[in-house]
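Structure ticket #2291
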Amino acid sequence: MKTYLILLYSLMAIGAYSQDTLPYFKIPDYPKAYTAGTVAARVVDGLGFRYYWATEGLRTEDLQYKPNEDARTCEETLQHIHAMSFNLVNATKRIPSEPSKINSQLPFEILRSETLHNLKTASDILKKSTDKDLNGFDLLFKGDNYEVKYPFWNLLNGPIADAIWHVGQVVTFRRSSGNPFNSNVSVLNGELKND
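Resolution: structure written out below.
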């Protein structure tokens, strides 16, 4: 029954995202004004752009790669980033993250799509937010016997910075497994370099 539900969920998610183009092929144009929300959104957009290209064209052998026995595989690292993308989007939606309810055991294409869409949704909310809104974007963790709350500041130096760190690991892993990051990607300009 569990296998059937996972298959059904996977097919529904593929159908939901199959009509969409994945966000962050190119970094969005920068906002016209500097606000706390637009600056935070730009950091998320930078993460989204880097994640898009770090994960573009990953092969099965790339996903299974791990540098040593004590390390995570590339796929496990992507699952961790996926969970953090829920922490981020949930904070901007003002809802708690319940780690036991986040399913990161998904096929790679769905995991990637959900992560990118979570980042885009969070960025869009941040771009429209006021300083007062940011004060309410608390990072909330909830479980059966606990509830923990952190201010937005911890979202910046916690899940966002951690996700950027792990995207760098994915780039290193894929290089080590023989499938390097696309050299035509300009992370400074947020787009592919002109040929």
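Closing remark: The mean pLDDT is 91.
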